[in-house]
Amino acid sequence: MNSATLAWVVLGAYLCGSIPTAYLAAYGLKRVDIRQFGSGNVGASNAMRLLGKGWGVAILLFDAVKGLVPVLLVLHVCLAADASVQRYALAAALAALVGHVFPVWLKFRGGKGVATGLGVMTALLPLAVAIALPVFILVVAVSRYISLGSIVAAALLPGLFFINHTLPADCELFAFVCIACIFVIYKHKSNIRRIIAGEENRLGEKRPEMPAKPV
User: Looking at the whole model, is its pTM more than 0.90?
Assistant: First the structure.
């Protein structure tokens, strides 16, 4: 791997991932700092409570594109002929995910990585995502917990990896998938506590507009 190329890949993917979609939408539409609303999370779920389902879905899709595009550009356009293309793609995937969760524009306080992780994994593991996504939808439909659907889908991906990949041939990719999924689940630790306590917000419920509680 060329260090200069790697640096550009990481920087570009991080900046793409760090675009604070939910924050910009909430401020642009309602002049509200989304960090002071609901859960305080700068993500699609909290934006849905503030702006409605339509905007919530749009923000989710855009956040997914933030992860999808940098990885696809590396894999199929910019570095497709490079012998280290997969490593560059993994670096881009990690940087985009980190950018969403720790955006420099919001003092490194961003979302939980679900939507951007979806985009990243779609670029790297399209078949696994095609199976995990309906499971996510089913879990959310039954439980009405978006967070639970996200946790279940993230937990499934390392196992679904083996549908069309093997070890040790794809060990670097598998290591990334495991680390990314564990990280996303870890970021939902407060949601897990609220689900257990019966305090987690369900899809369709609205919280009062008040300063966010620590998460």
Answer: no
